[in-house]
Specification:
Blueprint (H helix, E strand, L loop, with lengths): L17 H10 L9 E5 L4 E4 L4 E6 L2 E4 L4 E3 L4 E3 L10 E3 L6 E4 L3 E6 L2 E3 L1
Antiparallel strand pairs: 1-9, 2-8, 2-10, 3-7, 3-9, 4-8, 5-6, 5-7
Length: about 120
């Protein structure tokens, strides 16, 4: 009963559907900071992010690359090179050259500069 009166995705109704999440991720906009781009990588492809670039792993599996690693803004910790990227968390590249390598086919949402390898 309580969930029927709560905003979807709120503390009162924390469960969301995949279609709702896909729609919201496609619509994400952060004002003057720009919008997220949907990027798909094949297994063993990688991206090198520019400083300040944000990355969200939506599907698949990937590992962190680069000497500075990635900051997990959702969890508040540094992920070093080789650590697995956590789905649906926002990661920030602290320096140019940090990024991810796909260990399976992945879908990412990226805001900022990057180079695909």
């Amino acid at each position: 009963v309580g969930a029927a009166n709560s905003e979807p995705g709120s503390a009162g109704d924390p469960l969301i559907t995949q279609s709702y999440l896909e729609t919201r991720l496609d619509e994400i906009s952060m004002g003057s900071g720009g919008t997220y781009q949907k990027i798909m990588l094949k297994k063993n492809d990688s991206i090198s992010a520019g400083q300040g670039t944000e990355i969200i792993l939506y599907s698949g599996n990937a590992t962190v690359t680069g000497t500075q690693g990635l900051l997990n803004l959702s969890g508040g910790e540094l992920f070093k090179s080789g650590n697995s990227v956590v789905k649906y968390n926002i990661f920030l590249a602290p320096s140019t050259g940090s990024g991810i390598k796909a260990t399976t086919a992945v879908t990412l949402f990226i805001k900022g500069s990057y180079t695909a390898k």
